[in-house]
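Raw record, unedited: Pilus assembly protein
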Amino acid sequence: MTMRRAQPLPRPGFRWRVRLRALCDGEFERGATTLEVVIIFPLLLLVITALIQGALWFHARSLALAAAEEGVVAARAYQARPDAGPTRAREFLNAHAGDVLASITVGARPAGRERVRVEVAGRTLSILPGIPGPLVSQAAEGPIERFTLAGEP
């Protein structure tokens, strides 16, 4: 019985060794960081833009509420003119709003027999050109001051 010698496995060629070494060294991952940045950077810009637009909306909302409250203070005064509330609210917005609020509408109406309501609405400033800013609408109301005698409601 003759024993055959086991044939040695064929040794990988030069190309195979280069590929194996490149795989072990991480050479095939070249450019992976650039690809990650290309994917993540636009998302990061979108988040930053949304945060800034949200801050502008919140600021415009606060301004509209403050103007409505100023209008209510003027409109509820004893024997105030019917247009005192909207006039005071517009003065407040002209002094403090600047470009933050656009397309502003101010209105006042009685909210019952003894109450007054002032509403301020507008659009916030948009940081994206061609896209209108979000709508903002705020209202405030309060009792109308009146003269009463002691013991009367």
